[in-house]
Amino acid sequence: MSPGPETLSAEAWDRRVRDFCGAAAGDRYAFYSSVAGGITTDPVRMAVPADDHLVHRGDGVFESFKCVDGAIYNLDAHLDRLERSAGRIGLAMPFDREALTRIIIATLRAGGRRDALVRLLVSRGTGTMSADPHRCRRPELYVLAYRLGPSSAGDPARGVRVGISAVPVKHPFFATVKTCNYLPNVLMKKEAGDRGLHFVVGMDARGMLTEGPTENLAAVTADGELRVPPPDRILEGTTARRMLELAGRLVEAGELNTAGYAEISRRDAETARELLIVGTTPDILPVVEFEGRAIGGGVPGPLSVRLRELLERDIRENAGRRTPVWEQGIVS
């Protein structure tokens, strides 16, 4: 019988992990850990303890947001949702809002990039391999700044193909909380890839469409109504909510009749003037095919273009939605 793996020295361990990470390590810029009480820019050190409830129970909440041209977009909306999610599962926040913002900014600065994605995770903490959360020492915080590149989710100029997922939808309690237990979401993403689609969306027992693995669905009906499924049964998307607010300008201009939260049935999607996929990373993408049926003649519609333009301008120019990270004049 083989003697099994060897026990490594700290130096050998780090060397092997570094070799394993390879070139992909360059996509991870900086990492804050409350366990260490600081920030590292060494990808080998960007790790969560194996006994953290986040790792072996999925017990935690998270947010993803982006820094664009030196400022974080829509940070307050993301932190509001993070705090709501933590409260729903009885998880105490390890830092108040002011301290949390300072940590996020410091991590981005350490990463040295004006454009980056940020993944923020709050865990129940370390100290036990059991399911009992009372045995965890304290809540922990992890913040990772990593590469913001062109979205691999689809090309807004060409549109995306979407289907209905076979993965059962989450119970509303779990769907409305952004926890780290994302197995259904992962399976939806896998299903989309297996079927050669860009996205799949859920459908509940009532025949109403819900959400994608990490995105919201929106529809422009034949009557000119912009609809996003109500957030009482799905996760309220920060980008989708902001899109609805910006769409008010199109309502005022007569380009839309209404914009708000409303159910979207399968039939509504199949007969929609336009369908949209909305999220933090892809922004707004037009759907050109739904369950094999062409939407809008199979080409991106004008409202998807207008809404995307409004959102992109908001991301780059709305000082009220931008939290500065880099002082003016600093070039990374």
Molecular structure report:
- It comes from Kiritimatiella glycovorans.
- Belongs to the class-IV pyridoxal-phosphate-dependent aminotransferase family.
- Its cofactor is pyridoxal 5'-phosphate.
- This is Branched-chain-amino-acid aminotransferase.
- Pfam families: Aminotran_4 (PF01063).
- This protein has 332 residues and is α+β, with helices and mostly antiparallel strands.
- It has two domains: 11-146, Aminotransferase class 4, branched-chain amino acid transferase, N-terminal domain (D-amino Acid Aminotransferase, Chain A, domain 1, 2-Layer Sandwich), CATH 3.30.470.10; 160-317, D-amino Acid Aminotransferase, subunit A, domain 2 (D-amino Acid Aminotransferase, Chain A, domain 2, Alpha-Beta Barrel).
- It is 30% helix and 23% strand.
- It has nine helices and 15 strands.
- It has helices spanning 10-21, 53-57, 75-88, 97-111, 172-175, 183-194, 238-252, 266-270, 302-317; strands at 28-33, 38-40, 60-68, 71-73, 116-123, 140-146, 160-164, 199-201, 216-220, 225-228, 258-261, 274-279, 283-290, 293-294, 322-324.
- Strands 7, 8, 9, 10, 11, 12, 13 and 14 form an eight-stranded mixed beta sheet that branches.
- The longest helix is centred in the last third of the chain and has 16 residues, at 302-317.
- The protein is globular, with a radius of gyration of 21 Å.
